[in-house]
Amino acid sequence: MNAWDFVWYLITQLGSDYFYVAALTIIYLGLNRKLGKKLATIELSNIWLSAFLKDFFKIPRPPKEFWKYPVEGYGFPSGHTQGTTVFWGYLSLYFSSVVLLLLTILIVLLVAYSRLELGVHSLLDVVGGVFFGAIVLALGFFVEKKVVKKVKTYINYFWVSLPLILFIISVVSGCGGKDAAVTTGAFFGMAIGFAYLKGSIKEKPNLKVGFFNILFGAPSAFVAYYLASKVQVLLIQFLVMSLAGLVISFLPFLIERVTKTQETQEQVHHQV
After folding, report:
1. Which of 21, 212, 224, 230: CA 20 to 30 A from 242?
2. How far from chain centre, in Å, is Cα 167?
3. Residue range of the domain that includes 144
4. Given this model, what pLDDT does residue 268 score?
5. 132 and 78 in contact (C-beta within 8 Å)?
6. Can you tell me the mean pLDDT for 17-41?
């Protein structure tokens, strides 16, 4: 891989699993829990869909002699392109920002081209990624705006049941493999935390709490992802990531309680 290829390799990481592990963890733990929950729901569901579609269509990647770094699995649709379309597209729609929309278009084009430049996807693959990503975005916003509000009382049941349903579909169909197990597991664990802690923690943490959330939460997420990727049994992968998702969702609650306790003790100490 020459220097120019390495530049495209770095750009393509904007659509990698590691990027989403970091980004979703940081947004939920350190910036905005409401946005983090919504973004995690749509992005993890999208990653599951991409993995499912790859095994369903079974369209091979370009010949290996064109690859500039090793990859696994089928080619259609491009998971990097599909994930980038959903992640950045959701942010631009959530904030109703023209600037973010333009940035989304730029990032999607760069990631899509990087897949072609690195020889690991065809034009059909990346176009398919954008197509299915756009469908997920449209469907996600329709459910969020039209359906969720009507069944608000049962939203916690929806959060918990959706990843379980997706995981069962993957196991029964044989489509999705490790990526499906890992994403639905993380989704399931976080969903349990969302449901249990609803209204118990602040939507936006202060700087101190947010810092400690990320400090402890991000390494936990990466360790869990690494461990899950090393085992071959789908159920174990699902359970490992479920535990990680649960820990991450409860972490803000625990750290807020610890910091409040420390602040109370300091106040008492000063009064004495």
Report:
1. 212
2. 16
3. 3-271
4. 46
5. no
6. 89
